Inverse folding.
């Protein structure tokens, strides 16, 4: 790695870094790992399908005026009694399962992404500051991170979520449920990011070009944002991917416990919880399809994360 | 050594101070505590009287120190919902949670290390590959889905095992155990497996990775060169060297099990502290929420302390580094 | 291979071993445990039902809800109260005698400031000991239905209460748990053996019970284990872990019926489910509409017509409900077929009525709903959201546990809410005084009709049955026209039973173990 780019053209830096990022062996490794390719394909496919749910889905399950109770509890189209317009059947309220899963998946992914982003922004910011400034600031931030890392994320998320809900007045509890969940999950995974970002920062901060930048009097925040931050990108990306899988599971778990997203706008976890009530009565599709969707989604993201970790870890190459 | 432990202790005290502050604030900022205690038709005078009695008009710091004092004596007040002392409730529920965690930990460790060693040694065999792929699925399966599936298959479909609850308990006076009766074991199997699965896959993958790394070290190569049997190499040398990190895992593992016991207990209606906590959240039963918060934090602080000390004792590198 | 074999062997070993029992043990479950064993502390269904197995009242109801003597053998009305002849030779579980003193004590306790039974007991102004086995209950004016109001006022032993410092029900100010929370000493057919709240409660048959041999029941031991999760509860029945589920979810009723060795019993319940609309406030709290649309009878009618009661019955309730047009069930004095007929479903007309009322584009509103109280409560509300959306009403659903939902109604903080009402007295007065009287403590609709208020008052003292019934009819017809509520349906109770046990189902959803027979 070389860092002799001209300092006076900082706006080119992101481009060149991206260039390098693309040209390196990650792509090579990716193209030679069928598992990674399949995983990426599934991940991209499901994320796209969910994000574009409003365009793909035959119905809008979040719009109550489109739901007819008389269509409730219909089995999948290929089962006797199923109707062709409801490919995967309908739920207990008459919502099309396929549409509901797409919308629910979208919600799950968005909540997962938002939570990871929150954790990432918080963690990387604190990590870079910690690594760059050092001293007491560093000690305080890293001790807090250490402490938090000792408590498993899911438990912390349940606790923060429970406390967050308790603080909200009753009327706002359902309205803000999504944000509480995002914050609860986001607040639990920042230490991972902070640790990695701090490590990368400390390596970078000692390099000559940063020293030089410091000598010519660039403000600390500018150095951090422009020079140090981009270098933390690779390891942070790995953690973010694995974190996404964990965040999706965490959201589903909270919703399953009845502490997450309300059933009027269900996420995958909420769907599984509601469907679970109908499992014994033979309406298996209400819980089965969302469960499969969730597992496939998380599995794909995990697979991707696994591969990324191996690809970016020089020790295993 | 002394300095090291002292430092850790100081850290633990700090954690507990933060946690107790959070749980104190729960009491004071989540709703009006008086409203949670009086009936619907209480008069204004009654409410004021209770405020006075509870000392809610004192300065916040006075209230906090009083809360700390009570907390140190294990006094968290009465549950809003069932009007019983919270510390008693937690201690009644504790054996159920700890036994569940204990059985799960055994399953996770025995099976996890076993399969980890196997896949580490026979890394090319198709069984190993199969186990590894399944393990990745295991990491991706949310605990509650595993629980539902197990109930459906083993309790409802095959009717082999009970679907929920804890039965066959024997009261030892200070501890109610369900591990002494057949009924008790039948009831604990499904929740324990559910709880252990996630940790099991983690341990499996970690032990395997450690094994692979150790197998490539020089001293294993030397051992091989000396003509030792495969068996001796695998178990006397390789496995032993993977044990140091495994000790850390046990600590984290128990922590993870306690965390996920909340979910498992909910799915299986296992009468432990986790189930109690979730029910308390539903009812905004603040005394239980606050006590659980403090209690779990304490548990984690203790586990980490023990692990740190163990690690320190087992691994000379840390001792020297210090 | 070895391992799987071992597993198979050990699993079989575990399955085969099941205890051989000589006695009849009934294992049952329901959603919520009793909150306390103190009989006067919490007026709440599961608590009353649990305590009713251990404690007894002067008068009780059998499974057909007919009044029956329990601790009183006979009673008669006087001009200012009622005289009760007590059963003789009754002993509490600790061996002490049940006498008139205990009745006085129990009423004093039920009327205590910290009691949750004040509402039922308050018309009894004093209790007088005539002799050891006769008491006179003086009421504030003539009370024709007093015995109906006494079925859940349980009798406690004065001596036991004094000895254990539980003379008063547990107070909200208490710092400690009182003795009566987990200990009980009644006169009933079962004694409390052990109690782990929310976990397991064990009761044993009382060998010295006065009613021994008078009832068909042959249960020696009851093990009650609450299971919150509905699916898990049904799983316990399907897998044979329990013999009786009080409240299987309706969607699983068919599954239980078709399972071998299991059956379902159903009965129309004395409980009606409805939505309340607050027409009393000047401005709705949760709505974007100007003022209060509910003040306009057209809007209330539109809401009534927009809800498809039949769809709710068929899809949400699995057929297990009776759509209705009034808020009290058949079996309660005052329910008539004309008033019981549903308002019907007509979305087009509803939309027109809204437009007439000045809301052609509808408005938004919050619907407050419990999620753990009535059969499929949250799902009914969800269905209503979709139905109201079709006439342009944008409903924001807030479904929360009952413990938080009910205070909202009692404090009148809700614009639009779900409520269910059972009538233990089987008389309309219970409905009028709580739900329709302008001052009714559960009337959060602000409905205040002078004539209805007048009738509510008049029927408490009217002894002429014919006149009284006519007044009740008149009031119900007024309510039918004014539509302060949106009636949905009367609930149907379904109990899941194993074939090993026979328990008569009762419309008040109370489990009466004295009638339970193990085969």
């Amino acid at each position: 790695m070389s860092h002799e780019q001209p300092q006076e053209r900082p706006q080119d830096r992101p481009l060149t870094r991206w260039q390098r990022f693309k040209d390196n062996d990650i792509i090579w490794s990716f193209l030679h790992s069928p598992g990674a390719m399949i995983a990426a394909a599934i991940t991209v496919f499901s994320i796209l399908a969910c994000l574009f749910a409003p365009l793909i889905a035959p119905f809008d399950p979040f719009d109550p005026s489109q739901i007819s109770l008389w269509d409730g509890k219909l089995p999948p189209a290929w089962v006797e009694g199923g109707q062709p317009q409801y490919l995967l059947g309908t739920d207990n309220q008459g919502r099309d399962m396929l549409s509901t899963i797409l919308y629910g998946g979208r919600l799950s992914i968005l909540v997962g992404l938002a939570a990871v982003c929150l954790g990432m922004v918080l963690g990387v910011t604190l990590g870079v500051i910690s690594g760059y400034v050092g001293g007491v600031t560093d000690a305080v931030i890293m001790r807090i991170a250490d402490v938090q890392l000792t408590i498993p994320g899911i438990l912390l998320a349940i606790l923060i979520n429970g406390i967050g809900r308790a603080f909200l007045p009753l009327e706002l509890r359902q309205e803000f449920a999504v944000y509480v969940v995002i914050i609860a999950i986001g607040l639990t995974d920042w230490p991972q990011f902070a640790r990695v970002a701090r490590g990368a920062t400390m390596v970078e901060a000692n390099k000559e070009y940063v020293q030089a930048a410091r000598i010519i009097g660039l403000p600390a925040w500018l150095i951090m944002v422009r020079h140090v931050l981009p270098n933390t990108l690779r390891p942070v990306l790995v953690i973010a991917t694995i974190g996404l899988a964990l965040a999706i599971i965490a959201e589903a778990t909270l919703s399953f416990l009845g502490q997450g997203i309300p059933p009027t706008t269900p996420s995958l976890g909420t769907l599984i919880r509601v469907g679970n009530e109908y499992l014994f009565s033979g309406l298996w599709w209400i819980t089965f399809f969302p469960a499969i969707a969730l597992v496939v989604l998380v599995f794909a993201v995990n697979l991707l994360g696994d591969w990324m970790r191996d690809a970016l870890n020089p020790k295993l190459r | 050594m002394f300095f090291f432990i002292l430092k850790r202790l100081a850290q633990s005290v700090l954690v507990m101070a933060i946690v107790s502050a959070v749980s104190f604030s729960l009491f004071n900022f989540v709703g009006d505590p008086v409203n949670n205690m009086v009936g619907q038709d209480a008069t204004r005078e009654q409410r004021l009287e209770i405020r006075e009695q509870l000392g809610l008009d004192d300065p916040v710091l006075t209230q906090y120190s009083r809360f700390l004092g009570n907390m140190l004596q294990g006094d968290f007040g009465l549950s809003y919902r069932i009007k019983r002392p919270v510390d008693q409730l937690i201690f009644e529920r504790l054996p159920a949670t700890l036994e569940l965690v204990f059985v799960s930990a055994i399953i996770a460790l025995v099976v996890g290390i076993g399969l980890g060693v196997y896949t580490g040694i026979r890394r090319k065999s198709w069984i190993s590959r199969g186990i590894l792929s399944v393990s990745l699925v295991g990491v991706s399966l949310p605990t509650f889905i595993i629980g539902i599936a197990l109930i459906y298959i083993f309790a409802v479909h095959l009717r082999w095992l009970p679907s929920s609850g804890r039965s066959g308990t024997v009261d030892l006076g200070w501890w109610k155990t369900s591990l002494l009766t057949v009924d008790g074991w039948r009831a604990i199997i499904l929740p324990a497996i559910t709880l252990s699965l996630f940790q099991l896959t983690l341990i499996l993958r970690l032990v395997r990775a450690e094994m692979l790394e150790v197998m490539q070290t020089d001293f294993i190569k030397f051992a091989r060169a000396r003509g030792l049997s495969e068996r001796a190499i695998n178990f006397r040398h390789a496995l032993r060297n993977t044990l140091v990190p495994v000790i850390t895992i046990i600590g984290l593992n128990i922590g993870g099990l306690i965390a996920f016991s909340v979910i498992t207990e909910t799915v299986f209606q296992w009468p432990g502290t986790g189930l109690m906590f979730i029910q308390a959240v539903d009812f905004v039963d603040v005394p239980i929420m606050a006590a659980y918060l403090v209690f779990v934090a304490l548990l984690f602080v203790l586990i980490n302390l023990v692990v740190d000390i163990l690690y320190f004792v087992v691994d000379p590198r840390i001792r020297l580094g210090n | 291979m070895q391992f799987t074999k071992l597993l198979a062997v050990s699993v079989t070993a575990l399955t085969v071993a099941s205890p051989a029992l000589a006695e009849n043990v009934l294992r049952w479950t329901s959603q919520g445990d009793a909150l306390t064993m103190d009989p006067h502390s919490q007026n709440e269904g599961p608590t009353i039902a649990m305590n009713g197995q251990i404690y007894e009242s002067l008068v009780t109801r059998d499974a057909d809800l007919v009044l029956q003597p329990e601790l009183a053998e006979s009673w008669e009305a006087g001009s200012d109260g009622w005289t009760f002849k007590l059963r003789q030779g009754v002993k509490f579980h600790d061996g002490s005698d049940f006498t008139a003193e205990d009745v006085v004590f129990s009423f004093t306790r039920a009327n205590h400031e910290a009691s949750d039974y004040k509402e039922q007991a308050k018309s009894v102004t004093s209790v007088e000991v005539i002799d050891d086995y006769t008491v006179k209950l003086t009421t504030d004016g003539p009370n024709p239905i007093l015995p109906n109001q006494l079925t859940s006022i349980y009798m406690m032993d004065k001596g036991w209460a004094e000895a254990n410092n539980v003379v008063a029900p547990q107070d909200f100010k208490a710092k400690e748990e009182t003795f009566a929370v987990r200990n009980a000493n009644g006169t009933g057919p079962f004694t409390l053996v052990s109690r782990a709240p929310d976990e397991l409660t064990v009761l044993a048959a009382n060998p010295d019970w006065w009613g021994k041999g008078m009832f068909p029941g042959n249960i020696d031991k009851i093990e009650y284990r609450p299971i919150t999760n509905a699916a898990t509860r049904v799983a316990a029945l399907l897998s044979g872990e329990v013999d009786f589920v009080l409240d299987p979810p309706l969607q699983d009723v068919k599954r239980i019926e078709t399972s071998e060795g299991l059956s379902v019993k159903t009965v129309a319940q004395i409980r009606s489910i409805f939505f309340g609309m607050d027409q009393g406030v000047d401005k709705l709290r949760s709505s974007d509409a100007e003022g209060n649309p509910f003040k306009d009878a057209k809007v209330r009618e539109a809401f009534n017509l927009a809800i498809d009661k039949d769809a709710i019955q068929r899809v949400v309730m699995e057929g297990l409900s009776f759509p209705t047009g009034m808020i009290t069930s058949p079996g309660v004095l005052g329910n008539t077929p004309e008033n019981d007929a549903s308002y019907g479903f007509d979305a087009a007309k509803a939309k027109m009525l809204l437009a007439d009322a000045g809301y052609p584009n509808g408005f938004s509103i919050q619907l407050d709903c419990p999620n753990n109280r009535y059969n499929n409560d949250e799902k009914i509300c969800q269905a209503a959201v979709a139905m109201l959306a079709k006439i342009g009403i944008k409903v924001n659903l807030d479904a929360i546990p009952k413990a938080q939902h009910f205070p909202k109604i009692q404090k009148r903080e809700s614009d639009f809410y779900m409520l269910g009402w059972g009538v233990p007295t089987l008389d309309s007065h219970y409905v009028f005084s709580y739900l329709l009287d302008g001052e009714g403590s559960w009337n959060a609709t602000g409905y205040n009709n002078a004539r209805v208020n007048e009738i509510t008052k008049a029927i408490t003292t009217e002894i002429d049955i014919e006149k009284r019934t006519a007044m009740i009819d008149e009031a119900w017809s007024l309510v039918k026209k004014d539509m302060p509520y949106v009636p949905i349906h009367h609930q149907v109770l379904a109990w899941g039973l194993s074939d090993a046990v026979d328990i008569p189902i009762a419309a008040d959803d109370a489990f009466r173990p004295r009638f339970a027979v193990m085969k």
About this structure: Chain B has twelve helices and two strands. Residues 219 and 237 of chain B are 9 Å apart (CA to CA). Residues 2-72 of chain B form one domain. The radius of gyration of chain B is 24 Å.
